[in-house]
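We were asked to recover a plausible sequence for a given structure. The inputs and outputs are reproduced exactly as logged, with field labels preserved.

PROBLEM: sequence recovery
POSITIONS: 85
GIVEN STRUCTURE:
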């Protein structure tokens, strides 16, 4: 949005995707949510539009500092590093 000259000004922030969808369904605004959160359970009250181009975000893996890294977990971490690009 910044590249297009727009600045986001969130009016509210919530930790619950379900609360956000309920507020949108009640007519109290709009939101951008992850695709996994966009089930068609409220299709009668909210419209879902795909964004183009797709938005991307940086993710990180969170582990306990003293976590024993099993072989399987090491393989997952290697796979994630290899696909980072």
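RECOVERED SEQUENCE:
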């Amino acid at each position: 949005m910044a590249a297009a000259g727009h600045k986001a000004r969130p009016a509210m922030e919530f930790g619950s995707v379900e609360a956000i969808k309920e507020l949108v369904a009640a007519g109290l605004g709009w939101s951008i949510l992850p695709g996994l959160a966009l089930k068609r359970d409220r299709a009668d009250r909210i419209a879902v539009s795909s964004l183009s181009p797709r938005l991307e975000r940086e993710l990180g893996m969170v582990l306990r500092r003293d976590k024993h890294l099993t072989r399987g977990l090491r393989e997952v971490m290697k796979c994630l590093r290899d696909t980072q690009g």
